[in-house]
């Protein structure tokens, strides 16, 4: 590509990238968190959250007496000791879930027998948390002495990042309480998955920059995108992911493959003017294209309609920004179809959007991508 064209792409795309960055910084300041780092720590708010969780666990108003930065004595209303609770806020930053830290409270009796584990304030997707709660994940340590626990529960498929982060929080808190050293074991399965994501990314870049020579790779790359990024890894770029990673951070060791995918998704159109992610790598876009091959005679979408819907997509982005600012618990994942690949955790709205889009792709070329996708508009050249 000629140097002049690259320079022209950068000049054209810089204002948009700056706007996106400014909006994300504004949301980060408003949420008091940038890449998972708390900008202004308010211990009173954190203690209030622990108090709420403790009251709910014991079924009555209890009194927490701080023993140190991690451990609290728990007393009932009569002043009697009913147990103790340790929280992982001091270690939570070291291990992030899908959307930042996942601090926990570990409830024990005076002898150190675990009575229960509960999540403290977090930004994980509610569907993921509800699913692992229903599976009894937080009860995995019950009835065991904190100093004797060596075996940890298995991560739950469809919420792997969340469960792995909670397990790491438990292990770090356990190490503190028992005065032992915590070493994070290498997760070979996750490493293999992230390397597979990188492999598909490399193939998509080859097809993107050498389309004439790699036509035979087009369908295999689409299938790999659906199979590896979608079904296996649940690795996709979305408005929710961009927002939550910027504000609440993520774990590089757990998601290094997807992090590189996200960076590439912005850099390639910004510099080279090519829609590499949307056209060649997005698992939902790939699913639409593969299903669309059932009918080669597609209906054309009028140019005027395409122009109108570009304004619609920007309108959707503005509305979503306002909603997230006003309601921190709003689930952005429920307004895009990407979590359909995590079918056990997908919301009803996601299933409906995905189903309508896939069926429509038989008659129109990638209808979700071309008409409604807000993520695609963010990445658009």
Keywords:
single chain; 381 residues; alpha+beta; five-stranded antiparallel sheet; two-stranded antiparallel sheet; 14 helices; 9 strands; elongated
Q: How is this structure best described in words?
A:
By secondary structure, the chain is of the alpha+beta class. The chain has 14 helices and nine strands. The strands form three sheets. Strands 3-4-5-8-9 form a five-stranded antiparallel sheet, with helices on both faces. Strands 1-2 form a two-stranded antiparallel ribbon. Helix 1 (3-31) crosses helix 7, helix 1 (3-31) packs across helix 8 and helix 10 (283-292) packs parallel to helix 12 (348-360). The mean pLDDT is 91.
Reconstruct the topology from this structure:
Layout: H1 3-31, E1 33-34, E2 37-38, H2 43-58, E3 63-66, E4 71-75, E5 81-87, E6 96-97, E7 100-101, E8 104-108, E9 114-119, H3 126-134, H4 160-178, H5 188-209, H6 218-232, H7 239-248, H8 252-272, H9 276-281, H10 283-292, H11 303-326, H12 348-360, H13 367-372, H14 374-379
Keywords: 4Fe-4S, Electron transport, Iron, Iron-sulfur, Membrane, Metal-binding, Transmembrane, Transmembrane helix, Transport
GO cellular component, one term: plasma membrane
Domain FMN-binding: 97-177
């Amino acid at each position: 590509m000629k140097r002049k064209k690259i320079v022209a792409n950068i000049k054209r795309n810089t204002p948009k990238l700056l706007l996106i960055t400014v909006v994300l910084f504004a949301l980060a300041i408003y949420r008091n968190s940038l890449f998972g780092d708390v900008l202004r720590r308010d211990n009173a708010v954190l203690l209030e959250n622990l108090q709420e969780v403790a009251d709910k666990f014991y079924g009555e108003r209890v009194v927490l007496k701080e023993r140190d930065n991690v451990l609290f004595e728990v007393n009932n209303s009569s002043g009697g000791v009913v147990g103790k609770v340790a929280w992982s806020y001091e270690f939570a930053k070291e291990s992030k879930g899908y959307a930042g830290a996942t601090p926990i409270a570990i409830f024990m009796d005076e002898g150190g027998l675990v009575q229960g584990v509960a999540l403290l304030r977090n930004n994980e997707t509610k569907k993921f948390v509800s699913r692992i709660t229903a599976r009894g994940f937080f009860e995995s340590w019950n009835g065991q002495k904190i100093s004797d626990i060596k075996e940890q529960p298995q991560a739950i498929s469809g919420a792997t990042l969340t469960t792995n982060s909670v397990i790491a929080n438990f292990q770090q808190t356990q190490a503190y309480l028992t005065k032992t050293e915590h070493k994070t074991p290498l997760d070979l399965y996750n490493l293999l998955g992230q390397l597979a994501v990188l492999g598909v990314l490399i193939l998509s870049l080859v097809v993107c920059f050498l389309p004439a020579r790699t036509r035979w790779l087009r369908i295999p790359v689409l299938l790999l995108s659906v199979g590896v990024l979608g079904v296996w890894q649940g690795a996709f770029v979305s408005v929710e992911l961009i927002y939550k990673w910027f504000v609440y951070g993520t774990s590089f060791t757990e998601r290094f493959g997807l992090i590189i995918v996200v960076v590439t998704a912005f850099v390639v159109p910004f510099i080279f003017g090519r829609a590499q992610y949307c056209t060649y790598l997005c698992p939902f876009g790939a699913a639409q294209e593969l299903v669309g091959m059932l009918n080669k005679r597609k209906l054309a979408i009028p140019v005027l309609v395409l122009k109108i819907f570009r304004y619609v997509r920007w309108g959707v982005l503005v509305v979503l920004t306002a909603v997230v600012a006003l309601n921190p618990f709003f689930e952005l994942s429920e307004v895009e179809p990407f979590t359909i690949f995590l079918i056990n955790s997908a919301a009803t709205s996601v299933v409906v959007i995905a189903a309508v889009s896939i069926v429509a792709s038989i008659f129109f070329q990638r209808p979700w991508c071309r008409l409604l996708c807000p993520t695609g508009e963010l990445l658009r050249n």
